[in-house]
Every structure is written in C-alpha cells, then in structure tokens.
Model the fold of this input.
Amino acid sequence: MTEQATDLTVRKTITVEAPREYAFAVFTEQMGSWWPLDSKSIGTAEARTAVLEPREGGRWYERGIDGSDCEWGQVITYDAPERLVLDWQIGADWRYDPEVHSAVELRFIADGETRTRVELEHRGLAEAFGNRAEQMHAIFDSADGWGDILGRYRRAVSS
Done:
C-alpha cells in the first residue's frame, strides 16, 4: 500500500461510534447526506446529491439539481462491510477525466461491537497527477481535504 520512493499517499484514520456494518452503509448508501457538495462539487449544475453505486464496476458521481450526472470515478472493490476501493478520476483541474486514475481505499475495522476504525488511503497520485502530484497531495492531505470529508462523515454516522 505504498507509492514508489517519494511517498505521496494520503492516509487518514478516524473512529466512529457505530458498528462496522452501519459505518459502511452510511459511507456507501448515504454519501449524499454528508459529502460537502457546497465546497466539493465539480459538475456544471448545482449539486443535489452524491451517489455511489454499491457494486464493483458501479459509478461514483454527483447529480445536479437539473438531473444531470457528473462522474467522479468508479467502484473498483465493494466488499461490504470491510473494504471499499474507488477509482478517483478527477484531474488536477477538478474535472472528470476518464484517463486519470488514483485509488481511494477505505477499510472498516471493528473496534468492539459499537465502534469502527475507518482507514482511508488515497494512492497513485504520482501516476495520476505527474508534476502536480505534490500539490494535489497537499490539497488531499489538508484539513480541508480528506480531513473535512471524513469529519462530515463521522458526524453523519453519529446523528
């Protein structure tokens, strides 16, 4: 799970107060309720929801208020309730690009009956973003990047 000599992999870990099955379901089935569409939307229309199709090969996208879809990537691995791998197909210009591929892997690890540790790893940045990889790593690794997204997810699990 590492990236070449210069490690540009983003790693984040949080713990949520919920059983693993519920934590996985909130992440995959309720993404539209917690994803920060106000600040993390790439479609041309105002975003209404975020959708993750719950199967390998499924789409990962946002739906606009006008009914249009804006792709984000695909589901590579859907192993409920343990593991999810998403193909991030958003370029450094924050537009969908079917030629861009980095992987966002999430592991849901039971920590007793009512707690779950969620480990996120976003890798493949050097290959996906080339000379902009360090810049993209800094964005993804920032408090406003995956940290903000996982914080919103944690609040959704608790509510």
